[in-house]
């Protein structure tokens, strides 16, 4: 009997903040069901809601038993694909989430560590994206809204699953979302970029040590 292929979980978000589309959700939809580096991709959509987003993520992890979890979200105003280095233990929302919640200066996990590092090879991912002509930079902050919340919740959940690696990637606006002068990337480019992210994360365990990459 053929061995069941291993699974990677790729999440994106529903639209938020008055937008009618979220590139991260579209990318997850596009890559759902594809096979990358011998792994089956399960794409899932998370609500842009504090608490509920982590609950849905954990449900998906339990259901799919992935070897790798990559969460993605929209970072409007950024021009590049940005693998996030670190998740911090705070919710501090500038706008309400999709359920009208707006936590200010609240811990995500009471008594939890201040931060968790991504366990993705963020420099290797950035290098490979650039090599393929896709703009990419390591980001030093995932913000304090629902994306950082989910990233922290993911890394906290993975403390009990040490073999499962995970991290978070922010992506720019789609061209139809960008106001004049704002940066964006086409959906095809971003979908190809996240496929590269998954492939590099599956193939490379020990990150490369290269300087910089950090402009924000
Ligand atoms: N971006 C938001 C939350 C959902 C999303 O796609 C963020 O950066 O926190």
What features would you describe in this structure?
With 216 residues, this protein is α/β, with parallel strands linked by helices. The protein has a single domain, classed as Aminopeptidase. 28% of the residues lie in helices and 18% in strands. The protein contains five helices and eight strands; from the N terminus they run βαββαββββααβα. Strands 2-3-1-4-8-5 form a six-stranded mixed beta sheet, with helices on both faces. Strands 6-7 form a two-stranded antiparallel ribbon. A hairpin with a 2-residue loop joins β2 and β3. The chain binds pyroglutamic acid.
CATH class: Alpha Beta
SSE sequence, one letter per element: EHEEHEEEEHHEH
Helix content: 25-40%
List the bound ligands: pyroglutamic acid
Give the overall shape.
globular
Number of strands: 8
How far is the N terminus from the C terminus?
49 Å
The number of helical runs is: 5
Low-confidence stretches: none
* Overall SS class: alpha/beta
Oligomer: single chain
Strand adjacency order, main sheet: 2-3-1-4-8-5
Q: Please identify which CATH superfamily we are dealing with.
A: Peptidase C15, pyroglutamyl peptidase I-like
Report the β-strand fraction as a percent range.
Answer: 15-25%
Number of domains: 1
The average pLDDT value, as a whole number, equals 96
CATH architecture: 3-Layer(aba) Sandwich
**Cα radius of gyration in angstroms:** 16 Å
């Amino acid at each position: 009997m053929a061995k069941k292929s291993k699974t990677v979980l790729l999440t994106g978000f529903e639209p938020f903040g008055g937008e009618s589309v979220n590139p991260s959700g579209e990318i997850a939809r596009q890559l759902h069901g594809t096979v990358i580096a011998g792994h089956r991709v399960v794409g899932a959509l998370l609500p842009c809601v504090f608490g509920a987003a982590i609950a849905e993520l954990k449900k998906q992890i339990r259901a799919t038993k992935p070897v790798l979890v990559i969460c993605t979200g929209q970072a409007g105003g950024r021009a590049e694909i940005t693998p996030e280095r670190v998740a911090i233990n705070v919710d501090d929302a500038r706008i309400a989430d999709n359920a009208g919640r707006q936590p200010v200066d609240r811990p995500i996990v009471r008594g939890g560590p201040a931060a968790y590092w991504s366990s993705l090879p963020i420099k290797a991912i950035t290098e490979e994206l650039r090599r393929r002509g896709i703009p990419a930079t390591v980001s030093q902050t995932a913000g304090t809204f629902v994306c950082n919340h989910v990233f922290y919740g993911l890394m906290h959940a993975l403390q009990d699953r040490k073999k499962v690696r995970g991290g978070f990637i922010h992506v720019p606006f789609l061209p139809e979302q960008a106001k004049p002068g704002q940066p964006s990337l086409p959906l095809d480019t971003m979908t190809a970029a996240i496929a590269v992210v998954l492939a590099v994360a599956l193939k490379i365990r020990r990150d490369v040590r290269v300087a910089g990459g950090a402009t924000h």
